[in-house]
């Protein structure tokens, strides 16, 4: 039985600072807010855009009781808590949290597009989304992004281990 509320999915990624800790902190905040349902495994992916470090990525399934704009505000608050600074499009970031899906909602607002407009173009989103909701991802979509550099790193437990490792022990 699925939890009450709207079934929503957010994609999280980070590649500067301590990416594992920033992702873990965001998941803890979602859990504390009572909206976190499930978390995919952890993936490492090549960046899109300017030269920068690889990303750690995952997808979280949420049960949301407010609307899509409130979820977007929650995502922005998570980014602000990780001290994200927006300097350049697709640039490095301490935390990126994107609304991917929000129930059956379709929106084409300049501020918020649902489904996320590039969801089906990115393996680092499709692979973890397929873990949580295989019915939402087709084999054709996965095949179309199969050449993108993205690898499964481990479970969310590994994320927590990486987040608490000393800087000399981190593998991010």
Short descriptors:
172 residues, alpha+beta, six-stranded antiparallel β-sheet, two-stranded antiparallel ribbon, 8 strands, 25% strand
Compute the number of helices.
Answer: 5
Shape: globular
Oligomer: single chain
Category from helices, strands and their pairing? alpha+beta
Overall pLDDT confidence = 90
Note poorly predicted spans.
Answer: 168-172
> How many individual β-strands?
8
Estimate the strand proportion: 25-35%
Biggest beta-sheet profile: 6 strands, antiparallel
Distance between the termini: 36 Å
Run of helices and strands: EHEEEHEEEHHEH
The helix fraction, in percent, is 25-40%
Radius of gyration: 15 Å
Q: Could you explain the architecture of this structure?
A:
The protein has 172 residues and is an alpha+beta fold. It contains five helices and eight strands, in the order E-H-E-E-E-H-E-E-E-H-H-E-H. The strands form two sheets. Strands 1, 2, 3, 4, 5 and 8 form a six-stranded antiparallel β-sheet that branches. It has a two-stranded antiparallel sheet with strand order 6-7. Helix 1 packs across helix 5.
Write the layout of secondary structure elements.
Elements: E1 6-14, H1 19-32, E2 36-39, E3 42-45, E4 55-64, H2 68-81, E5 96-102, E6 107-108, E7 113-114, H3 123-132, H4 139-144, E8 150-154, H5 156-164
Antiparallel strand pairs: 1-4, 1-5, 2-4, 3-4, 3-8, 6-7
